[in-house]
Design a protein that fits this description.
The complex is a heterodimer of chains A (about 550) and B (about 325). Mean pLDDT of chain A is about 85; it is low at about 1-75. In chain A, α10 (about 350-355) runs antiparallel to α12 (about 415-425). Chain A contains 17 helices and 20 strands. Chain A starts with about 20 loop residues before the first helix and ends with a strand. Chain A has about 550 residues and is an alpha+beta fold. In chain A, the strands form six sheets. A five-stranded mixed beta sheet of chain A has the order 8-9-10-1-11. In chain A, strands 12, 13, 16, 17 and 18 form a five-stranded antiparallel beta sheet that branches. In chain B, α5 (about 85-120) packs across α8. Helix content of chain B is about 75%, strand content about 0%. By secondary structure, chain B is mainly α. Chain B has 13 helices and no strands. Classes of the chains: A alpha+beta (about 550), B mainly alpha (about 325). Chains A and B meet through α1, α2, α7 and α13 of A and α2, α3, α5, α7 and α11 of B.
C-alpha cells in the first residue's frame, strides 16, 4: 500500500482505513437542518436493523453465520454476463497518478494493470512483469516484462512505457502521493531500460521489499502509456482486462471485455457496470434488492449481517489497516512512558475489535508488525487490559488524576467513543475533540495540522504491504507523518537494517528490535488490525472476493 | 397586479446580489482545504501549495468574489475543483433531475393533499377527519429517510415490485423511469401530504362555517355543489403558501431522499460539494437554488393573489 495514511473525508477510501459514514460528516456541516442530520445519521442504524429483520424473516440459506467462504467455487468458468457493482462516487477526477480513494482505484484497476499484483494474502503475483531480481545487495532491481502485451489501443507495452510511468510518479509536478512511497528509496533518474522488455531500477539505498513499491501495493503505480497526459476517463487506455466505455461522475461507469487482454481466455465476463451510490445504505439496499451483484467497498458493520441472507455472501479477509492512537511523547502528560503504557493497559482490545471492527479484526500489540507480515515477531507478549497495572504505572509517573483531549475526525468516532468509555472505567477522563475531516487533515503538515500536532489523536491508516511503510513515516525520527514526535536511534538503525536485510532471518531479527521498542515505548497504541469484507450475490457469480485493500480483480469472476 | 409584479421583479437584482454575497461568504467558511481534499492528506505541502496557487485560492477574497460573480452572470461557472468537469453542465443537469423528481412529487401531492384536506374539513370533528389528521400528522412527523427505508425494504427488497434506485439506466423507457421514481415520489408525498392537507382543512373549515356557505345551503344547494362552488377555492388559498414551502423543499431540499434512493439531484450535489469543499460547484449550486427559491416565492405570491383578489399585496389596493 501507499506509504501514507489514507485520506478519506467521506469514508470511501479502499484500503484498510475505517470507513467514514456520511452521518458524522453531515452533523458537522453548517447550515444543515436537524431533519437532514437525523436522516443521515439515523439512517445507518435503521437500515441495518431493517436489513437484519428482512433477512431473518424469510431466508435461511446462511444460517450458519460463517463469514469466510472460498474466494471462488470450483468448476469450469462460464463466459459472458455483466457484473453490476455498487460504489461510492469518486470524490475527485479519476486519474491514476493522483487517485487515492477506493472507487477511483477500482475503476483504474479494471482498465489498467501493474507490474505485480498484490494478492489477498500479501503474496506478489507477476502481472506485466514476468520476473524480477535484485543486484548489488538489493540496491538495483531488474524487471523483465511479459512479452506480447499490448495496450487497449494496440500499442505494444515496452520498457519505455514503464519507465515513463515511474518517472511521472516521481515528478513533483505530477502531485502524485506515490512520490512519498519512494522517498529516500528511488529518485527520478533512477530508472533505466535495457532493450524493449527490461527495466532497471537503481535505488538510493538497498531496499529488500522494493517489488512491493512497484506492485499494486502502491496503487498509483499502474502502467500507463508513455504519452499519458491526464485525461484518463476521456481517453482510457490500459493493459487491464476491461475497457472503459463510458464514465459519468454522477452516475457510474460501464466497462466491456478487453479483447486484447494478455491473459488467454480472460476475463470471463462480457463487462462490468459500476453504479455510484453516494450513500452506503443505498448501496447495500441495491445489493439486497438485486439491483447490483457486488460492492466495491463493503463496510463490515453494514454488510456483515447480510451474510447468507437472500443469496448474499460476505467474503472476509485479514488486513493491515489500523487506527493509530497517537500520543505526543514530547509533551506532558505523555512525555512519561509510564503514562503511555498505562493507557495501553487500560484498553480492552477484544472490546475495541467487537465494537469498532465488527469482530473481523485481529488484536494489535502496540507495534507495527501485523501477523500478516512474514517478519512479524511471534514472542512479544500480547498486551491486555490490566487495571492494577494502570494504577501502578500512573502512580510511578506521579499522576494522581489523568485527563486529556482526544482529537479525531468523523470516521474514527466509534473508536473514540470506545476509548473514552474504556478509559473511564479505570479513572482516566477523555475529552472528545471531534473535527471535520477537512479541519483534521487541513493546515500545514510541517507546522500545525491537527492529526500531526495534537497531544493525542486517532488516525486511520490504510493497510500497507510492507511494515516499513508504517514504520518509516509514522515512528522513525523525523518521519513525515510522525505525529507522536517519537525519536529512537536504535529503532532508526533497525529500520534501516530491516530495509537492507538480504535474508529472512536478518529481517526477523531487526523486526524484533523495532517491535520491542514500540511495544515498550508506546508512541502509538495499535489495539486492532482491521480486516476487510466484500459482499456479493453468490447465486449469480463466483470469483468475487474480498481484498485487504478492497482492490478489485474481476478478471477471474464468472457467472454461475 | 402589474404594479406588484414590476415591483417584485425590480427587487430581484438587489436580492440576487445579497444572495451572492451570502453564498460566497458562507461557502468560504466551510472548513477544510480544497487543495488538500483533491490531493489527499498524504500529498506533500509543496504539491498542495502548488495546487492552491493553480486554483487561485491564494488570491484576495474580494478579487475572487468579483470574478466569480461576473463569471456566474456571464455563464462562465468554471470547472469543478474536485471532479474536473464544467460546473454549469453539472449543476444544471442535476437541477433538471431534481425538477423531474420534485415536479412529479408535487404533481401528486397537490390533488392528494387538497382532496384529503377537503374531505377532512368538510367532515371536521368526525371519524374521517380524525383519521386523516392523525395519519397525516404521523407521516409528516416521520423523517423521509425512515419512510423511504421502509418502502425500500418492503417494495424493493422483499417484494421486488420497484427498483431500489431512482436512477434508471441510460436508454430506459418512460415507464421504466417512472418505476424507478415511484418509491422516492411516494415517500415525499407521504411526508408532505399531512402538512398541506392541514392547511386545506383549516381553509375548508373556515369556509364551511362562513355565512355565504350557510346561505347557499339554506337556499337548498346540494352539499357537493356547495363544496365545489364555494368551499374549494376559498379553502385552497391558505394552502398556497404551504405548497410554496413544500415546492422549495421538493426542488432543493431532498438530500436525504436523493441519497437514500441514489438519485443524482441538486440537493445531493450541494451536500457533496460542501463536504469536498468544491467551491465553484458549491457556490453555483447555492446561487441556482437561491434564484429558484425566489422564483417559487414570486409564483406563490402571484397564485395567492389570483386565487383571492381581496388580498392586497405590498400594501397596494386592488
Amino acid at each position: 500500500m501507499q506509504e501514507s495514511p489514507h485520506p478519506d473525508p467521506r469514508g470511501t477510501s479502499a484500503p484498510g482505513g475505517p470507513g467514514g459514514p456520511g452521518g458524522e460528516v453531515l452533523s458537522r456541516l453548517p447550515g444543515l437542518s436537524r431533519r437532514l442530520f437525523l436522516g443521515a445519521a439515523g439512517g445507518a442504524a435503521l437500515t441495518g436493523l431493517l436489513a437484519a429483520c428482512a433477512g431473518g424473516a424469510g431466508d435461511t440459506a446462511g444460517a450458519s453465520g460463517s463469514r469466510t467462504v472460498p474466494a471462488s467455487a470450483p468448476g469450469t468458468p462460464k463466459t459472458g454476463g455483466v457484473l453490476r457493482a455498487g460504489s461510492p462516487p469518486p470524490p475527485t477526477a479519476v486519474d491514476p497518478v493522483t487517485m487515492y480513494d477506493g472507487s477511483a482505484i477500482a475503476i483504474v484497476q479494471l482498465v489498467a494493470d501493474y507490474l505485480i499484483w498484490l494478492d489477498r494474502d500479501f503474496k506478489l503475483v507477476p502481472r506485466l512483469a514476468e520476473k524480477w531480481e535484485s543486484e548489488e545487495g538489493g540496491r538495483r532491481w531488474v524487471f523483465s516484462l511479459r512479452e506480447g502485451v499490448t495496450f487497449s489501443d494496440g500499442t505494444p507495452l515496452n520498457a519505455k512505457a514503464v519507465k515513463a510511468t515511474f518517472d511521472r510518479l516521481l515528478d513533483p509536478k505530477s502531485k502524485s502521493a506515490a512520490a512519498a512511497a519512494f522517498d529516500s528509496v528511488l529518485a527520478k533518474g533512477g530508472i533505466g531500460v535495457r532493450g524493449d522488455s527490461t527495466v532497471v531500477f537503481t535505488l538510493e539505498r538497498p531496499f529488500s521489499d522494493f517489488p512491493y513499491l512497484v506492485s499494486a501495493g502502491n496503487y498509483n503505480a499502474v502502467i500507463l502509456k508513455e504519452d499519458y497526459a491526464g485525461d484518463f476517463t476521456g481517453r482510457p487506455v490500459g493493459t487491464g482486462p476491461f475497457l472503459l466505455e463510458s464514465y459519468d461522475a454522477s452516475s457510474g461507469a460501464v466497462f466491456t471485455r478487453n479483447p486484447k487482454y494478455w491473459e488467454p481466455g480472460k476475463p470471463y465476463l462480457d463487462g462490468v457496470r459500476i453504479t455510484f451510490y453516494a450513500d452506503d445504505q443505498a448501496d447495500l439496499l441495491a445489493l439486497q434488492s438485486g439491483e447490483i451483484d457486488t460492492q466495491i467497498l463493503s463496510r463490515p458493520a453494514l454488510a456483515g449481517p447480510l451474510d447468507g441472507v437472500g443469496g448474499i455472501t460476505v467474503d472476509q479477509v485479514q488486513g493491515t489497516g489500523l487506527t493509530a492512537f497517537t500520543l505526543r511523547v514530547d509533551q506532558p502528560p505523555f512525555d512519561r512512558k509510564e503514562v503511555r503504557q498505562a493507557i495501553a493497559y487500560a484498553l480492552d482490545r477484544p472490546g475495541v475489535n467487537a465494537g469498532v471492527y465488527d469482530g473481523i479484526g485481529a488484536l494489535g500489540n502496540d507495534h507495527l508488525f501485523a501477523a500478516l507480515f512474514p517478519a512479524a515477531p511471534p514472542d512479544v507478549p500480547q498486551r491486555a487490559k490490566d487495571p492494577a497495572k494502570v494504577a501502578s504505572l500512573l502512580a510511578a509517573a506521579g499522576v494522581d488524576r489523568l485527563s486529556f483531549a482526544l482529537t479525531y475526525d468523523p470516521p474514527s468516532k466509534d473508536y473514540a467513543l470506545t476509548v473514552q468509555d474504556q478509559l473511564k472505567q479505570v479513572g482516566i477522563e477523555v475529552e472528545l475533540d471531534q473535527r471535520t475531516s477537512g479541519d483534521f487533515y487541513g493546515g500545514d503538515q510541517e507546522k500545525d495540522t491537527p492529526w500531526l500536532f495534537t497531544p493525542a489523536n486517532l488516525v486511520g491508516w490504510a493497510g500497507r504491504a510492507v511494515p516499513s511503510q508504517f514504520v518509516i513515516p509514522m515512528v522513525k525520527s523525523g518521519g513525515v507523518w510522525n505525529g507522536s514526535k517519537y525519536a529512537n536511534p536504535a529503532l532508526d538503525a533497525a529500520t534501516d537494517a530491516y530495509d537492507s536485510a538480504t535474508t529472512d532471518e536478518e529481517r526477523r531479527a531487526q523486526a524484533a528490535i523495532i517491535a520491542g521498542a514500540l511495544h515498550e515505548d508506546v508512541p502509538v497504541i495499535i489495539a486492532v488490525w482491521s480486516g476487510a469484507v466484500r459482499a456479493y450475490d453468490a447465486k449469480r457469480f463466483t470469483g468475487v472476493s474480498a481484498h485487504p485493500s478492497s482492490y478489485v480483480d474481476f478478471s477471474s469472476v464468472s457467472r454461475l | 397586479m402589474r404594479r406588484f409584479l414590476l415591483r417584485r421583479l425590480a427587487a430581484i437584482p438587489l436580492t440576487l446580489l445579497a444572495v451572492s454575497l451570502l453564498v460566497f461568504a458562507a461557502t468560504e467558511l466551510v472548513p477544510g482545504d480544497v487543495a488538500r481534499t483533491i490531493l489527499g492528506r498524504e500529498a506533500g505541502e509543496e504539491a498542495v501549495s502548488r495546487l492552491r496557487e493553480q486554483l487561485g485560492l491564494d488570491r484576495p477574497l474580494a478579487d475572487r468574489y468579483a470574478d466569480w460573480l461576473s463569471g456566474f452572470f456571464t455563464g462562465g461557472w468554471g470547472d469543478s475543483h474536485t471532479l474536473g468537469v464544467p460546473v454549469r453542465e453539472l449543476v444544471l443537469g442535476r437541477l433538471a433531475d431534481s425538477l423531474v423528481l420534485g415536479g412529479l412529487a408535487f404533481a401528486l401531492l397537490v390533488p392528494v393533499a387538497v382532496t384529503l384536506g377537503l374531505v377532512s374539513g368538510v367532515n371536521h370533528d368526525r371519524a374521517a377527519d380524525r383519521v386523516i389528521s392523525v395519519t397525516g400528522l404521523a407521516l409528516g412527523a416521520i423523517p423521509e429517510f425512515v419512510t423511504g427505508v421502509v418502502l425500500l425494504v418492503v417494495f424493493a427488497v422483499r417484494l421486488r415490485w420497484f427498483p431500489a434506485s431512482a436512477q434508471a439506466p441510460d436508454g430506459a423507457t418512460i415507464s421504466t423511469r417512472l418505476g424507478h421514481l415511484a418509491l422516492p415520489v411516494i415517500s415525499l408525498v407521504l411526508l408532505c401530504t399531512g402538512y398541506v392537507a392541514r392547511h386545506v382543512r383549516a381553509g375548508t373549515v373556515a369556509a364551511v362555517e362562513s355565512p355565504y356557505v350557510r346561505a347557499a345551503e339554506l337556499r337548498g344547494l346540494g352539499r357537493a355543489r356547495v363544496v365545489r362552488r364555494h368551499v374549494l377555492r376559498n379553502s385552497t388559498v391558505p394552502a398556497t403558501s404551504a405548497l410554496g414551502v413544500q415546492l422549495q423543499f421538493l426542488l432543493g431540499g431532498l438530500v436525504a431522499v436523493e441519497l437514500l434512493f441514489n438519485y443524482p439531484g441538486i440537493g445531493a450535489l450541494l451536500l457533496q460539494s460542501a463536504i469536498d469543499k468544491d467551491l465553484p460547484t458549491l457556490q453555483a449550486t447555492a446561487m441556482v437554488l437561491g434564484i429558484l427559491y425566489m422564483l417559487i416565492i414570486l409564483v406563490a405570491d402571484l397564485a395567492y393573489r389570483l386565487l383571492d383578489p381581496r388580498i392586497r399585496l405590498g400594501g397596494a389596493a386592488a
